[in-house]
Design goal:
heterodimer; A: 588 residues; mainly alpha; B: 88 residues; flat; cell membrane (chain A); ComplexI-like_HydComp (chain A); ND/Mrp_TM (chain A); oxidoreductase (chain A)
C-alpha cells in the first residue's frame, strides 16, 4: 500500500487537518507530515500510479523514477527543517498555506502528465502568495500582488503551450520535448518564469524579501527548484538554456553586490545559483543532469540555512538592511556560525556541500569542450564567494558595530539551522549517499589535490579582492532598478494615461451631453414659437441681403411672445417634432 | 515580531581590537602565499589553454574576476541605484 501512496496527499490533508487541531497538535502535525512523506518517498516503486481520466485523457498523478524521487527527498527534508524553524508560529493560516504550497510542489514533481502538472503549478502560485501576504504590511501586500500577477502570466503561457502541444501531438505526455515550435516555446517560457530567468526574475527579489521571516525560508526552495525539475524533464540539452543560465549566474551576482537588504542579497543569489543549474540543463549530458540534481539538492539545503540565519537576525532585531546591522557576532555567535557554514557551502568551499555538486556541472561543460561556459561559470563561482560567501556574513555579523545587542533566536530555530548545517558538512565530506540518488551514474571525484588547490586559490584570492576593494563595496541606503520597473512604473504610467484619456473623454461627454446641449435645448424651448420665427427671419434677411427691418420685426416677435399670444398648439407641435426626431436618432 | 527582542551579553569582541585584526590580516596573507607555492612544484593539467598551467593561474583568475565584477557592478550602480522610496 505504502509503495503507491502519494506524498503530496499527506501535505494537502495536513493543510486541512491543521484547522481542526489545537496548538500542540499543530506543532506535532507540521513535523510529522514531512517526516512521513520522506518515508513514503523512500518506499515508492518506479512506475506510475494514481491514474485518472480528465478531458478524455488518461492522466497519472504519480510518476516515480530516480529524478522525481531525488527532488522528493530534498523537498521533504527541507520542509522538515523549515517547519522546525517555524515552530513558534501560533497562527494557522501560514502553516496551512505552507503545507499546501509544499504539497503542490511535490505534486508537480511527481505529476506524470502536463495537465496534472499545470494544476499543481497554479496551486503553488496561489498558496505561496499567502506566505507574502502574511507579513501584513503595505509593501508586502503590493509585492504579493505583483508576485501573483507575474505567476498568472507565466501560468497562462504554460497553459497556452500545453493546449497547443496537446492539440498538435494528441498526447498529454510530459517527457523530453523534441519539437521546437510555438507550443514548446510557450511551455519553456512558463517554466523559465518560475525559474526566475531574466527578464522574468524580478518577482523573486521583489516578493521573497517581503515575505514573513519563516515564509521567506520556505519559499526559497520550491518554486524555482520545481521549475528546475520541469526543465530537466522537458528541455534537457536545449542549447539556449546554456545562454540563459550563464546570464542568470552573472546577473544574480551583480545585483547581489548592489543590494543593501540582506534577504534581497540572498534572493539575488538564488537567481545566480539557479543559473548554474539551468546552464547544466542546457549542456544536457548524463553528467550535467546528475550535476544539476546534485546541485539543486545541496542548494536547497544551504540556501534555506542562509535564509534561516538572515531570518533569525530579522526576527531578533527587526532589521534587514546591511546599513543597520553589523557586529552581531558578539551576541549571536551560533547564528553567525551557522550562517557562515551556509555561506561557505554556497561558495563551494572544499569540505562543504556546494563543492561536491557545483563542479560537476562545470566539468560536464568542459567534457563537451564548451570553453565559454567554463569561463563564465568559473567567473560566477568566484563572484558567488564575493556576494553570498563574504558579503552577507561580513556586513551582517562583522563590519561596523551598529550597537545592536540581540540574543540568539529561540532554540527550535537554532536546532533547524544546526540540522541543515550538519547536512552541508556531511554532503561536503561524504557525498556518496547523494550521488546514489542521482538519475544517472556519476563518476566524479571532487577531492583531487589539484582541483581542491585550484578552488582554494580561486576563493581566497576572491576574498582578497573583496577586502582590498572594500571602500567600493560600502553599503548605501538604496534599491536597484530591476525589470519590475516596467510593470511598477509602467503600470503607474498606464494608469495615468488611462486616467487622462478615459476620464477626459468622460468629462468632455459630461460637459457636452449633460450640461451644454440640454441647456441649449431648454433655452430654445422656453419660447419655441418666437425662436423659430426669429431664426427663420434672420435666415431670410441674410439671404435677401436686406437687414433694415430685421431689428423691428424681432422686437415685435418678442413682444408677442411675452404676451403669450402664440397659439399653444404651435410649440406643442414643435415639441412633438423634436421628440420624434430624437426617437428616430437615438433609437436606431 | 520583536517581542523577544532582548539585550544579550557580549560573548566576545575579538574583532574590536586592532591588534587582532593585524594578526588576522597577516595570517590571511600567509595563507594566500602558501596556496600558490605548490603550483611551482607540480605538474598542472589544462582544460583549454596552456595558460592554465601557469603557477597561480586560478589565484589570478579569481582575483581579476572579482575586481572586474566589483568595478562593473559599481559602474552599473550609478545607473541602477535609486533612493529607497523610489517606488512609494
Amino acid at each position: 500500500m505504502i509503495d503507491t501512496l502519494h506524498p503530496a496527499l499527506l501535505f494537502i490533508l495536513g493543510a486541512g487537518l491543521l484547522w481542526l487541531l489545537p496548538l500542540a497538535g499543530r506543532r506535532a502535525l507540521i513535523l510529522l507530515v514531512p517526516a512521513a512523506a520522506f518515508v513514503v518517498i523512500t518506499q515508492l516503486e518506479p512506475g506510475s500510479a494514481w491514474h485518472y481520466r480528465m478531458f478524455g485523457f488518461d492522466l497519472a498523478l504519480l510518476r516515480v523514477d530516480k529524478l522525481s524521487k531525488a527532488f522528493g527527498y530534498v523537498f521533504t527534508i527541507n520542509a522538515f527543517a523549515c517547519f522546525l524553524f517555524a515552530l513558534h508560529l501560533k497562527t494557522r493560516h501560514e502553516h496551512s498555506a505552507a503545507l499546501a504550497y509544499i504539497g503542490a510542489s511535490l505534486g508537480a514533481v511527481f505529476a506524470g502528465d502536463l495537465i496534472s502538472l499545470y494544476l499543481f503549478w497554479e496551486v503553488m502560485a496561489v498558496t505561496s502568495t499567502f506566505l507574502v501576504l502574511a507579513r501584513n504590511t503595505e509593501r508586502a501586500n503590493g509585492a504579493a500582488f505583483r508576485y501573483v500577477m507575474v505567476h498568472i502570466f507565466g501560468g497562462l503561457c504554460l497553459l497556452a503551450g500545453i493546449l497547443l502541444q496537446v492539440q498538435a501531438s494528441g498526447s498529454v505526455a510530459f517527457d523530453g520535448f523534441d519539437l521546437r515550435s510555438l507550443p514548446t516555446y510557450l511551455i519553456l517560457l512558463g517554466f523559465l518564469v518560475n525559474a526566475a530567468a531574466p527578464p522574468f526574475s524580478a518577482w523573486l527579489s521583489d516578493a521573497y524579501p517581503e515575505a514573513t521571516v519563516t515564509g521567506g525560508v520556505i519559499m526559497t526552495a520550491y518554486t524555482t527548484k520545481t521549475a528546475v525539475y520541469t526543465l530537466i524533464r522537458g528541455f534537457a540539452g536545449w542549447e539556449i538554456l546554456m545562454v540563459v543560465g550563464c546570464v542568470m549566474a552573472i546577473y544574480g551576482i551583480i545585483y547581489a553586490i548592489l543590494e543593501n537588504d540582506m534577504r534581497r542579497i540572498l534572493a539575488y543569489s538564488i537567481i545566480n545559483q539557479v543559473g548554474f543549474m539551468v546552464c547544466g540543463i542546457g549542456i544536457g549530458t548524463a553528467m550535467a543532469i546528475s550535476g544539476v540534481v546534485a546541485h539543486a539538492f545541496c542548494h536547497i539545503i544551504y540556501k534555506a540555512l542562509l535564509w534561516m540565519s538572515a531570518g533569525s537576525v530579522l526576527y531578533m532585531t527587526g532589521k534587514s538592511k546591511c546599513t543597520d546591522l553589523g557586529g552581531l557576532y558578539k551576541t549571536m555567535p551560533l547564528t553567525m556560525i551557522f550562517g557562515t557554514i551556509g555561506a561557505l557551502a554556497i561558495s563551494s568551499f572544499p569540505g562543504l556541500s556546494g563543492y561536491t555538486s557545483k563542479p560537476m556541472i562545470i566539468e560536464a561543460g568542459v567534457h563537451e569542450g564548451l570553453y565559454w561556459v567554463w569561463l563564465v561559470l568559473e567567473i560566477a563561482s568566484a563572484g558567488v564567494f564575493l556576494h553570498a560567501g563574504i558579503k552577507f556574513p561580513y556586513f551582517v555579523f562583522f563590519a561596523k558595530d551598529n550597537g545592536l545587542r540581540p540574543g540568539e533566536p529561540p532554540r527550535h530555530m537554532l536546532a533547524a539551522m544546526a540540522l541543515l548545517a550538519f547536512f552541508c558538512l556531511f554532503l561536503g565530506v561524504y557525498p556518496q549517499p547523494l550521488y546514489a540518488v542521482l538519475p544517472f551514474e556519476v563518476d566524479f571525484h571532487a577531492y583531487t589535490f589539484e582541483h581542491t588547490l585550484n578552488q582554494f586559490q580561486l576563493l581566497m584570492f576572491s576574498a582578497l579582492a573583496f577586502f582590498l576593494l572594500l571602500p567600493l563595496l560600502k553599503r548605501t541606503e538604496t534599491i536597484s532598478i530591476d525589470s519590475d520597473w516596467f510593470y511598477r512604473r509602467g503600470g503607474r504610467l498606464f494608469y495615468g494615461l488611462a486616467d487622462k484619456a478615459l476620464n477626459g473623454l468622460n468629462s468632455w461627454g459630461d460637459q457636452l451631453f449633460i450640461k451644454r446641449i440640454p441647456g441649449l435645448l431648454a433655452r430654445f424651448f422656453e419660447e419655441p414659437g418666437s425662436n423659430v420665427q426669429k431664426h427663420g427671419l434672420r435666415l431670410l434677411a441674410e439671404a435677401a441681403g436686406d437687414e433694415s427691418e430685421l431689428r423691428q420685426q424681432e422686437e415685435r416677435i418678442e413682444h408677442r411672445s411675452r404676451q403669450g399670444a402664440y397659439p399653444v398648439g404651435t410649440w406643442v407641435l414643435l415639441a412633438v417634432v423634436f421628440l420624434t426626431a430624437l426617437a428616430v436618432l437615438v433609437i436606431p | 515580531m520583536n517581542e523577544k527582542k532582548q539585550e544579550a551579553k557580549i560573548v566576545t569582541d575579538w574583532f574590536d581590537h586592532p591588534r587582532n585584526l593585524r594578526r588576522l590580516r597577516l595570517g590571511f596573507y600567509i595563507v594566500l602565499g602558501l596556496l600558490v607555492v605548490p603550483d611551482f612544484f607540480m605538474h598542472k593539467h589544462t582544460l583549454f589553454y596552456r595558460v592554465e598551467s601557469w603557477p597561480g593561474f586560478y589565484a589570478l583568475f579569481g582575483f581579476v574576476s572579482c575586481v572586474a565584477i566589483i568595478v562593473i557592478s559599481k559602474l552599473l550602480g550609478y545607473l541602477l541605484k535609486r533612493k529607497e522610496d523610489y517606488y512609494d
